[in-house]
C-alpha cells in the first residue's frame, strides 16, 4: 500500500527556502571562480553539514561541537543569501571571499568527520533505589481479663475450747533419741554394769557411764535404757 504524501505549509516553505538557498550558494561559488559541477557541489556540502550537525544535536542534546558546526554551516548559507542580494558585485568578488569559498571543502570535510566519529556520550545508569529496611510489625495484644470468681464463702469452723486452763495440761516428757548400739559395745557395757552392781548393789545409770567410762551422753542413755 502506497503512503499518500500530505502537503502542508511547513513542507512547502522548507522546499522553497532550500531551493533559494541552494541557488544563492551556487551563484556565489560560480562568482568566486568555482565553475561547472564544482559550483553545484558547494550548496550540497553546506546543506549536508547542516543536516549532520542537526542530527548530532538531536542525539546528544547540548553537544557544543554539533552546535559549532551547525552555526558555521548556517553562517555560510546565510552569508550567500545576503551576498547575492545585490550588496556584492558578483562580477568582481573580493579576494578574501574567494579564499573562503576555496577553503570551504576542507572545512566542511573536517566538520563532517568530527561529527561522524566523535563518540557519543554514554548515559550514566540510573542509580538503583536503595531497598527499604524491613519493618517488623509488632502487634501488642491486650491480655484478656481474668474471669471473675465468685467470692468464697467463709467456712464455718467450730472451735471447741477445753475449759481447763492451758497451764494445767501435762507436757509430754522428752524422749531421748534412739541411738543404735553395736552388739560388742553393748556386751562390754553389760560387763561394766555387772561389776558396778556387784560393788554397789545398784544398777548402773547413764551418768556413771558418761562420767567414768567416757561414753557420749546419748550413747550412755541408750545403753542404760537397754541394760535396765
Characterize the structure shown.
- The protein is mostly helical and 228 residues long.
- It is 57% helix and 0% strand.
- The protein has seven helices and no strands.
- It has helices at 9-31, 37-60, 64-87, 95-117, 183-200, 206-212, 217-227.
- The chain starts with 8 loop residues before the first helix and ends with a helix.
What's the SSE blueprint?
Elements: H1 9-31, H2 37-60, H3 64-87, H4 95-117, H5 183-200, H6 206-212, H7 217-227
Count every beta strand, where a strand is a DSSP E run of 2 or more residues.
0
Average pLDDT value? Answer: 74
**Main beta sheet strand tally, sense and closure:** none
Helix-strand pattern: HHHHHHH
Question: Helical amount among residues, as a percent range?
Answer: 55-70%
**Radius of gyration over alpha carbons?**
67 Å
Strand content: under 5%
Q: What's the end-to-end separation, in Å?
A: 144 Å
pLDDT under 50 segments (min length 5)? none
- Which overall shape is indicated by the principal axes computed on the Cα atoms? rod-shaped
Structural category is mainly alpha
List the total number of helices: 7
